[in-house]
Specification:
heterodimer, A: 433 residues, alpha/beta, Lysozyme-like, 8-stranded mixed beta sheet, 14 helices, B: 353 residues, Nucleotidyltransferase, domain 5, 2 domains, 5-stranded mixed beta sheet, 10 helices, 15 strands, 37% helix, binds zinc ion
Amino acid sequence: MWGFTHLPGASPELPHRRHRATLDFLSSRVMDPPKKLWFIKSTLTAYEAQAELIRRLPIVRGIVFHFLALESFGALARSSNESVIDFPKLPLRLLYYLRHALLAGTFAVVGFSGYHLYGASRTGADWLAARLIPTPEILSAAGLDFHPNRSTKAPANVWLVTETDTEELWSNGLRIDTEFTTTGKARHYLVFPKDGSSPIERTGPPVGIVYHASQNDMAPFAEDFSRDILDQTRDLIGWLKRREIYNYMIDRFGRVYRIVSEESVAIHAGESIWADEDYFYLNLNESFIGIAFESQWSTDVDLITAAQVQAATNLTDILRLRYGIEDINCVPHGLVSVNADQKLIGYHADWARGFPFNALGLKNKYETAPPSVDAFGFGYDDDLVDRLGGRLWPGVELAQAQLAERASKETIEPAELRARLRAHYEDLRDQLR
Amino acid sequence: MPSQPSRKKKSPTRKAAPRKAGSRASAKPVGLDLGTSSIVAARQNGQGIRSKSELNAFLELPSSRFTEQILDQNQIDFVRDNGHLVVFGNGAFKFANMFNAETRRPMRHGLVNASEPYAQKLLQVIVEKLVGKPKTKGQLLCFSVPAPPQDAPASLVYHEALMKQMLSSMGFDARPVNEGLAIVFSELEKKNFSGIGISFGGGLTNVCLAYLSVPVFSFAIDKGGDDVDEAAGEVTGETATRVKAIKEDGLDLNRKPRNKVAGALQIYYTDLIESVVDGIAEALTQTERMPKLDKPLPVVLGGGSAIPKGFAERFRKALEEKKLPIEIASVRLAKEPLTATARGALLKATYEN
Ligand SMILES: [Zn+2]
């Protein structure tokens, strides 16, 4: 996820873009404005009412969507006179009459894989979607542990082997696709010394890495869906490039794309807070590199492939070596993202649980007290706890305990201390403007 | 990802067809544009749409038989309140011109003016004059509301609830519709309700990008035509009336200004346009899930403040210079800029009927 405030009144769900084309086509046949509006709305509502499972499976959702659109269209045709509807010519008319057969076909296609569970709860459907299609290579990141004894120091020797116009090959085996690379604004940022001295302006290299989940549409990870998976990645790359989001993106086959050049600022972390031993970092777009896994991060299903983890490990090694990035500054988005106005942590929660630190040769940052809480008195709301499946990462508790201890030492109420820390944060934030 | 509310499952085959026209013929739905500077009502009338409007303003006068006589003779609407005469709507403007008095506004920046004690009552009186009492109880009425102001989103909730309560107490089944979306409804039917609708009101500008009638984003900017007039008046030292006169006397935003007021108006209109274009650019980058668009989007401008000659052209240029991440097909003025919002609200009311 990329960090930005959500606009009020933002989007409900629109169907997949091929289906929207159908809806567009059929709508153009309805001549009466209110009825056209009714047709569009009722099709979308009926589609939204379908189980998550159906809306996730590319072929199935296509058939169901077309069926629903034709249903609405038929209902409209029956209730209106000829002048309102320009009833489509033969092929579509035929399709309309055959719509039940189409739907029956859908049932047959998915029936064997458990369509009878369609009536199960939404959670059930999610569970099913994750397991319906045999996916031996999809791992739950939480349980991922490739190199349990890997050192958390970056390796001492990785180098660029060859380079073409569209690809770099690195000595650890990583290939970086540079075909879509774009350059943006040069890095230029402030770091705030923890000792309270005045901020330092830097234009140099990035100090850290923020890891993200791209949260785009995901076809099931299986051979039959290869085409869809590739299409989705291509769409994602185009979208990211146009908006200069993330420096790197790792697709589900482990291919690494450089989107925004390393020297340029990519949009990815929005309002965010992190710190190492010496400095506080605010709003990390300028100071941290953004790497996204093409992945639907959520609490129910963690989908990340072994190939992605391997690629992320190699990429992390390269970047750490190149820029001398410390382990402490390699951190997932969910741990740094904040709602600055409301002083809440976890505004974006991608990888606020289940990040494969170990496999990437990184220390587990879930155990680290987040500076947003620890140093700036941020809190959290129930919504975040819900989103993380009932529990926050242990670092938050640690930070709160540290805060309470500090308050009792200074013999003030924790609330008073928090207010003071928040005011300090506002001071620093002001200096960014 | 934020958790989604659980959805009720519905059998796809059991779906109600839209009601045939005529099932509620005795109570035609109403579209209402509750704007800062005027209120517009739209209704189906045979094959066409009929709209009426009143200025959203009033004037308080001390009660006297003499004043009442003048008002009566000039056919100016008024109500008595607590020993005062309150002149409202178009009449308030007429009267203010006659006697060089200042009118007051029940609404400010698109929302009910909380510091105006008469506000709610006057709104009700003006709405009643425009649409009358409902013919049957529960007659459907869609009223326009702005997008939540970014600094005070709660104020919209209050405004919307208050308007809904007022209209319900009059006997309507009242439902809100976003102002920008209403423009998409009334003006972009041929594009299957896909595009950007912008309403340039007196106190507020509303923007909505919709795709197949689904709003992708909407936002409001706390600037409108009144601010342009006011600022132009202030820097040139001219009265509001004279600024208005110059504006209506063939101001062309694409021509060299003929006098200092026209020059000032050009500057402030440009500022208004640029704020809106900046807002669109920002909204496009902030929207988390912008649907992939298959074709360029049309832009339609409505509202009284978009009327000056050359406005659409200026807007198109500003959009081009901004280099948005989406393609724009065209920029045009609404067919009837003053009634576009009300007609869109009517379309929504008709569809929901
Ligand atoms: Zn993210």
